[in-house]
Amino acid sequence: MLLLFALLIIASLFATRISDKIGVPVLVVFLAVGLIVGSDVLGLIEFSDAKFTKQVAEILLIFILFDGGFRTSRSDLQIAAKPAITLATLGVAITAAVLGACIHWIMHYDWMLSMLIGSIISSTDAAAVFLITKQNPLQKRIAATLNVESAANDPMAILLTLAFIGSLAGNDTSLFGFFSQLAWQFSGGILAGFLASKISRFLFNHLHSENRGYFYVLIIGVILLGYGFADLIRANGIIAVFFMGYWLGNSDFVAKRGVSHFLEGISSFCNMALFLMLGLLAFPRNFALIWKEGLLIAGLMIFLARPVAVFLSTLPFHYSFKEKLFLSWGGIKGAVPIVLATYPAAYELENGESVFNIIFFAVLISCLLQGSSLGKFAKLFKLTTHKSPSSPFSMELHSTKQSDIDMFEYLISENSYCAEKTIRDLKFDPDVVITSITRNGKILLPRGAVKLLPEDILFILAPLSRHHELRLFLSKGPISTDEA
Q1: For strand 433-439 and strand 442-444, is the pairing parallel, antiparallel, or unpaired?
Q2: What is the spatial distance between Cα 92 and Cα 101, in angstroms, rounded to a whole number?
Q3: What's the rounded Cα separation, in Å, for the pair 337 and 369?
């Protein structure tokens, strides 16, 4: 079994190279590999345990969503906080309500079951959206809106799903009770995330270990601490870890750069394991029984429910018509809807298996249709920007204690003051050192006579207090003390 699992991971990783070329989201590749090796096709792995899948998936989502928060910059949140959070809360509720009503009226499902299905599939996939916006750089406000919304909208979908599952299971909850619980889930989760981020930063700065691996173990511990604390006070753990990641990712602490790389690997593994497992849980032969329902729900969700939610939620925020259309098309479905689709079967509700198959099929349609065409729509609507070069190399200053010195990365643009100047001409202060230059995928030694060119990437060792001043100097030239 371990050998087979290892082969699955390796095969999935190399299959992503094909998905990049044809423009199919990576998560579709992982799902496909799980489907192929599962019970219905090759039959290499027999797997049908919805409860176990739910339990494992919830753990994997903790790290996926923490990483999403960790990589959400403060500038992105400031640019698009209000519209993105509105879409992540009100937008999810509108999507669930519109889709649920359509399912009830068109497919004649029971009201509660219809609303449950609408709630399950109401959130968008952060992993797919992040990947596509990275491959196709968008205008900053649109990219920030999509990224922040996709990272923050899962908790609302989870809360709505649990509420309707409770109703179907016979748990009577008043409207006041539901909204008060919803308010505490969000506010308590944010509070738990804030406290956990402060505790985490303190622990990192006082670990004082020469073993770099201990910092990586610590990040796993504090993530689980944040989730566990939220669960203890009956708040939402997913909200807690997302905001904990956001606050920790936007603060300085010991070994942050190394922890960031480690988190990227953990998140990638969790995404891969999650989709492989969900692919194994699905039985393709069942798609023949529900493909019409799945196709109809996918169509209603993509062409009606999501656009209605976007156009209503963004009314106060002055987006253009084409920007709203693009945000509507950016509602790609992914991991969380499929994970939530395991809940009805895990709670032993009637039609639980059928709900899972319908949601799985609809998510697959969304991934293939929206995921493969979002980049093309961005270019069609002229919402893309110039793609900045990235360095294939990574430089970091590993320190076991707090330090006011750190490594910074700067991209030289065509309009930069230092473009076409030699390093010697810049006359840096003694406490600022260029450690290396990346040009055309190669590293250059930073000798004084080296002329800096547009799209060079500089790695500079300097005091933290000089970071803003250096960025201004490299872009605009010498500045006054007041400007610094």
Answers
A1: antiparallel
A2: 14
A3: 16
Amino acid 29: pLDDT: 79
- Spell out the domains of the chain, with CATH numbers in brackets: 2-380 (1.20.1530.20), 405-476 (3.30.70.1450)
CA–CA distance, 292 with 279 (Å, rounded to integer): 20
Q: Which residues pair with 407 in a beta bridge?
A: 461
Question: CB–CB of 41/244 below 8 Å?
Answer: no
The CA distance from 210 to 346, in Å, is: 45
**216 contacts: CB under 8 Å, gap ≥ 6:** 258, 259, 262
- For 162-189, the pLDDT digits (tens) are 888 888 876 666 667 767 877 888 889 9
Distance between CA atoms of residues 484 and 471, nearest Å: 10
Q: Say how many residues make up the chain.
A: 484
Burial degree of 260 (CB within 10 A; 0-12, 13-18, 19+):
middle
pTM given for the model: 0.80
- Taking 3-state DSSP, the helix, strand and coil percentages for the chain, each rounded to the nearest 5, stand at 65, 5, 25
pLDDT band, very low/low/confident/very high, at 323 (cuts 50, 70, 90): very high
Cα distance between residue 271 and residue 26, in whole Å: 10
Strands, DSSP E only, in 63-190? none
Alpha helix locations (H) across 153-253? 154-168, 175-205, 212-232, 237-249
User: How far apart are alpha carbons 189 and 245 in whole angstroms?
Assistant: 12
154-164 pLDDT, tens digit per residue, is 878 888 898 88
Task: Give 463's strand partners.
Answer: 405
The predicted-structure confidence for 298-321, as pLDDT tens digits, reads as follows 999 999 999 999 999 999 998 999
> pLDDT tens across 388-397, in order?
677 677 777 7
Is the C-alpha dihedral spanning 86, 162, 242, 60 positive or negative?
A: negative
Q: Which long-range contacts (C-beta less than 8 Å, at least 24 apart) are formed by 223-228?
A: 223/62, 223/63, 223/66, 224/62, 225/196, 225/199, 225/200, 226/66, 226/192, 226/193, 226/196, 226/197, 226/200, 227/62
